[in-house]
Amino acid sequence: MAGGMPIQTGQIAGSYLTGRALIFPLSLVISLFFLWGFSYGLLDVLNKHFQTVLGITKLESTGLQVMYFGGGYLLFSPIAAESLKRRGYKFTILMGLCLYSLGAISFWPTAHFTTYEKRKAAFGGFCVCTLVIACGLATLETAANSYAVVIGNPASASARLQFCQAWNGVASFIGPLIAAKYFFSGENANSLTNVQFVYLAVACAGAAVAVLFLVVKMPEVSDEDLSEDPATAADSLATDEFSRGVGAGPLYKQYNMIFAFIAQFCYVGAQVTIASFFINYATENASYSSTQASNFLSYALIAFTVGRFVATALATIFQSDFLLIIYAALAIGLNTYLCIGHGTPAVAVLITIFFFEAPMYPTIFAMGTANLGRHTRRGAGILVMGVSGGAIFPPIQGAIADSAGIRISYIVPLCGFVYVLGYVVTHWLRNGRHVLCVKEVVAVMADTPRKSVDQSVERLEDVSLQKE
């Protein structure tokens, strides 16, 4: 660890972890990404399964997404952020794992006592269980995303978060594969029995990871480190002109964070609607069975996972905002075809769009939380609140799908991608228009003694003015 105390102290002071010191804490964080990726993969399949078993409409089935993204992420993320600021990363992660396991184990009695006569009430019970799971996941995302960004070199924050988020994708395609076998096959096609066992396993996995975090030591990052870190100061000069200085001014004046929150809201809304109605699109717009469509969803999530790993490699070469411009533009083109295409080619495009969605969430998160300094933890909570877009977009698309058809309804995610493109283009234009990744300034500043930070910052500003 450069410029700080030994890793055994469990504290990061004055700089960031590098090299081998990063492996263990990032491995812990990756286990959290894996957990919520698996849960998210199951959620999209349950959406269709409940339509079949409980006899609910497409619009009603989006109640799961409303609870998951609206109730959990929108309402609980500020609480998680406050816990993160006051109690630190380890306590917040343990709190999230407890809520996650509690919500998962609650699926057992809800599914066990469900009858067809009480199917509407049962669906309400599943929504409540989903809400508790989402509160846990919102807590984990607030802590884990922020931790992955601040634990290492700011220059590689986007690539590092891309890599961690990629394991989220690995878990997310396992969920639909399990669902295709246990939810939609044979006698289980009209039963909730196996839902109990799947979520019991999810609860056990959450409890096991909680025990792991309880017994190990995690390097912590204090607000003072975030406010004073010279590497972060350099990063603000090198990559962000929305707000000069590290966390300067009140939180409500961190305009880059606010615009990033809206972009996150629109992106997640687009992603969730595309995935939530994937099976409906494949069965109604191209004559596939639910089992085949669920398998195709797994293939799409594999493409999503591959996209994350590819984006991780590209983020070490290209500037993250420039890279996202290309991805967002391609996503818009593909999404436009979804609104007019049909048959197997349209399903192929639907699978392909997952690849280009892949880097959006971690890249927007890293861009939005850069240079927040003492506001980093609360800013992370606000960016995670952007996930609540997944609660707003699906009901709108569900209503359009019920009235005008599933194909036309895909205009909803198209609107989300358009805003994302607008945000990243503006960010790129206002922050140097770099194509290749900016690393040199941060590397120099990371080795600069703290007492000379002000002089180094002044020199960087002089160089910037000369270039202009």
Automatic annotation (TrEMBL):
Keywords: Cell membrane, Membrane, Transmembrane, Transmembrane helix. The chain crosses the membrane at residues 21-43, 88-109, 121-140, 161-184, 196-216, 258-281, 296-315, 322-340, 346-367, 379-396, 408-429. The keyword Repressor does not apply. It comes from the Eukaryota. One of its GO terms (molecular function) is transmembrane transporter activity. SUPFAM superfamilies: MFS general substrate transporter (SSF103473). InterPro entries: MFS, MFS_trans_sf, MFS_TsgA-like. It is found in: Cell inner membrane. Gene3D superfamilies: MFS general substrate transporter like domains. Its main location: membrane. GO terms for cellular component: plasma membrane. It is a multi-pass membrane protein. PANTHER family: L-FUCOSE-PROTON SYMPORTER, PROTEIN TSGA. This is Major facilitator superfamily domain-containing protein.
